[in-house]
Amino acid sequence: QDNSFEQFIINYCNEKLQQIFIELTLKEEQEEYIREGIEWTHIEYFNNAIICDLIENNQTGILAMLDEECLRPGTVTDDTFLEKLNQVCATHQHFESRMSKCSRFLNDTSLPHSCFRIQHYAGKVMYQVEGFVDKNNDLLYRDLSQAMWKASHSLIKALFPEGNPAKINLKRPPTAGSQFKASVATLMKNLQTKNPNYIRCIKPNEKKAAHVFSEALVCHQIRYLGLLENVRVRRAGYAFRQAYEPCLERYKMLCKQTWPHWRGPARAGVEVLFSELRIPEEEFSFGRSKIFIRNPRTLFKLEDLRKQRLEDLATLIGKIYRGWKCRTRFLLMKRCQIVIASWYRRYA
Question: PROSITE patterns given for it (predicted)?
């Protein structure tokens, strides 16, 4: 019920994870169709980049203003921080405050004076501003670090390397918010280099009971997780895509013209292959560098045909080997018979 600085940075991390989910599933997929020259009607979806910018913008973001309050001289309180938010974020559509100069929030009696509210992608969350400044400072005083570094226990000494007199830094220690922001940025950079798979967990009910589904709760989670937009993109788009070269290499044994070797361009080989298999034209599209297959059943059909063809090829190889082995044995026996017969006629 009471959300403070800890919940705020956790929700910030959730916003960034949702943003990379949007980037890698909805935005990237639709942009790929355009890059590949596939006919496509853009599907609208909510991009939470505006919420991330509200929190992490280097000049007007909430974290930046919190750091500014923590570092500026003079009397600094949670109220002065909230006042600064009210001035800078007053007109932001995802920020709400009772003290905001924006008149549309002045009549909102459900919002206390010492709180602000952010409309996250998953819904509105109200934060108690009390303690934000102190928790963000998170100062470990230098004399305490130096005392810990002088401890005789090696583990304690290793935990406080900043207490080493040779490494004393007169700069103010970084705030908790800036450290968390840097950690999130490193995480996002790492995820961008991967090819992640997503598992979305849906909470069926609030009571943690088995076999009980609350329709309203489930629908709410499906909406704010962006699953509806994702399903629409998937249904309107293509279930499978692959570059021409590996596609031809995998399925070339299904067509006599492409097996065992295709001498022309890979795309031309795939076109001949799909034409020979008589796959309906509405089931696939040719991009600039990839083949796009609309329905999974078409891919399953190709895999079944490939499996059957591999079995046929294995049978053919076995048949040829057994024939070669029997013929070799027969020729050996024939030569032996000729030798035996010639020697027999010589002495007969």
Answer: MYOSIN_MOTOR (PS51456)
